[in-house]
Design brief:
The chain has 342 residues and is mainly alpha-helical. It is built from 14 helices and 4 strands. The protein has a two-stranded antiparallel sheet. A two-stranded antiparallel sheet has the order 3-4. The chain is globular.
Length: 342
Amino acid sequence: MLRVISQRALNRWQFINQINKQDITISRFITNATNLKQQQQKSVFRTFQLLGKQQTNSRFFTTTTTTATTATATVTKGTQSQSSLWPVFIRPHYYENKPKLSQALKQQQNPFRRFGQRLDNNPNQVLYTVIGINLGVFLFWQYAISCYRQFGDSSWLNFMSANFTNSREAIEQGRYHTLLTSAFSHNSIGHLGVNMMVLYSMGQGAIEAIGASRFLLLYAGAGIMASLFTQAYRKYIRPTLVKKQFFAGSERFSSLGASGAVMGITTFYACAFPRTTFLLFFIIPMPAIALVGGVAAYDIYQAYTLKNEVVDSAAHIGGAAYGAAYWFLRVRPLLKAGRWRL
């Protein structure tokens, strides 16, 4: 009888002892979890201080409970919060620099953005419009020339020369629009035909790569840069070359044509797709980057030796420089960052 009673008492004492040990273990576990969470919060606060953040978002932190029944759930939440804290440490701008709805609506209501979207929705019409403008300016040139030849009336010819050619006199007299209008101007059928043929073949690929609106900006930017290169070459570089080579040439000049803008589009396409096959003289296949590089090198040679001043080599160099810069400084960095959108 005493043995039975003592055995029951011993079992009861061992049971109570086990419960006490479990309570101590659970309390220690909760304390360790709480300390771990506090350390995580302190490290996150230090991270935000290093990043210059003065405010923290409470949604990234979870609180631990002190009850034994929710100890496992608390540890699970702590693990989830720890994994959710890493993106904040790596990319804090992903969570904090989201555009507001009002800003997005303003961007959608921006007239320039809406106009660009309309252009992107009709890419073929944009290319045909650019070619049509070049053709229209060519017809105006032919009308002006015919008026002068048949009737001796030079008013139209003077108007076209003053507003659709790139010259030093135009810049000095404040006609800065000629930097762009000269890129749509041709007065010979051969010049127009070659440029429009290259523009049509290269323009389709460029529009597919960057969109119609950016294609227009590329064309206009390359045309303006080509005109500026011509102005700088004629004012600063050519006089030095004339003195060095004892070459007698006229100081007056006027240039026109879309070759600078077309060279910019071609160079951009060659930089973006260097292994694409181009046909030299429409016969010899060559890699795009090799062909464009060879043409640019030939233009540099022509500009330095002054052997062929009928062709505006400086304009070609300026257009090629703009096309390469548009790829390496604008498009390529956005592609690497994953931020390029058509």
